[in-house]
Amino acid sequence: MTNVAVTAELARRAAALAWRDLPEDLVERTKQCLIDWFAVTAAGAQEDLTDILVREAIEDGAKGPASLVGRREKVLPSSAALINGAASHALDYDDVNFAMGGHPTVTVVPALLALGEQIKASGRLFIESFVAGYETSGRIGRLVAPNHYARGFHVTGTVGSFSATAAAGRMLGLSEQQLAVAFGIAATQAAGLKSNFGTMCKPLHAGTASEHGLRAARLAAKGFTARGDSLECDQGFASSQSDNFNAESALGEAPAGWHLRNNLFKYHAACYMTHAPIECAKEIRLKNNFPPERVKKILLRLDGAAEKVCNIEHPKTGLEAKFSLRQTVAMALTGIDTAALGSYSSAVTQEPQIKALRDKTSIEFKSNWQHSLAEMAIQLDDGTMLEARHDSGVPWPDVGKQRRALETKFDSLVIPVLGASNAKRLRDTIDRIDTLTDVGDLARAATRP
């Protein structure tokens, strides 16, 4: 397809990344990603889809030494990567990066946690490997954007397979040649369809990406063969799944120097494309203090990409509500806490006041529009027009403030699962991960007592 050796270059960068290369803020940002990941995973581990995956693993004879976050069962490392990965994306409450075009941490951490516990990796090696995987996700995401996502591929499942491979390969100490082959093994497994959004398959994509990445790295370490140019070759990953091949963007410098610096955390438990509209609705409600019955019309403008992602017009379940712009806007306008997991239920989708607001909402999906930007105009019954605009794609400049917000989110999600004392022990272990000689201590701190 091209003479640009993207696969080899990305493998070289991931294999060579070392502790000395990491600015101090990247270590803190990694810890914040872990605070958020363990929080959403502990809560997601209680979902029906996680129960099904655990039962399937046990029935398949996959009992083993690897820990499952928020649960008591132990399984084989490959099953742990799958289950923890799916659990961490079950609530659609996990972090986002627009360079990747998906959810980076949920594909990287499950593979590293399972592998790290198995080989007794150090905390510093875990951080090095995490950053290697995270940066790979941004680079390959930019390589195939925007057509890859527009074609219907769920980037978390597809590109996430490579980020998990890079992370696990770095932890195993693969050479750049071995890692390029591992990318080839990952490429032939990478999958995930947007048509399954709103079902259990969406979080399954994150789990399978993590499992595939772990498998790809381990097979490559054993001499398993694959092409070493899987990203750029004819009928390879890029040519088969995208009309774009943006090598310059993939290999160029990330905004602010590192893709990790552009990580975005969720403070609403719904699809990230609903966040800017939610913030618009909240701003209008809080500034103007009007009863929802006075709303005559709601006009929402946002990027056309949202139409095929979170535009379920008449949601009937809590999961569908997370992918409904009209539903989440109506919830925000009526003061329902969109950060609370319990707010997303079948019952809330059927509330007459919510349904009335959904029916009053029209959406203009715009082309050439900033992906994370929303504008809203609400007309009241007396003709008054209320407007708001919000961009949810801007990282918080204050990393300390961000940590405090994540700690609040962590406590709200983890304490109900592990209890207050065990939640504190887990957070303390995350904070000192760079001093751990065995990252298995972290995995075991997250299990249910």
Question: What descriptors fit this protein?
Answer:
60s Ribosomal Protein L30, Chain: A, single chain, two-stranded antiparallel sheet, 2 domains, 8% strand, 2-methylcitrate dehydratase PrpD, alpha+beta, four-stranded mixed β-sheet, 449 residues, 20 helices
Written overview of the protein:
By secondary structure, this protein is α+β, with helices and mostly antiparallel strands. The protein is 53% helix and 8% strand. It contains 20 helices and six strands. A hairpin with a 6-residue loop joins strand 1 (63-67) and strand 2. Helix 3 runs antiparallel to helix 4 (77-89), helix 5 (105-119) crosses helix 10 (201-221) and helix 18 runs antiparallel to helix 19 (420-431). 54% of the residues are buried.
Shape designation: globular
How does the helix and strand content classify structurally?
alpha+beta
Radius of gyration: 21 Å
- Average pLDDT over all residues: 96
**Relative strand content:** 5-15%
The CATH architecture assignment of the largest domain turns out to be: Orthogonal Bundle
Q: How many individual helices?
A: 20
**Which segments are poorly predicted (pLDDT under 50) over 5 or more consecutive residues?**
none
Number-wise, the strands total 6
Number of domain modules: 2
- Major sheet: order of its strands? 4-3-5-6
Annotated CATH topology of the largest domain:
2-methylcitrate dehydratase PrpD
- Classified in CATH, the superfamily of the largest domain is 2-methylcitrate dehydratase PrpD
Distance, first to last CA: 53 Å
Query: Which CATH top level class of the largest domain fits?
Result: Mainly Alpha
Largest sheet descriptor: 4 strands, mixed
The arrangement of helices and strands along the chain is HHHEEHHHHHHHHHHEHHHHEEEHHH
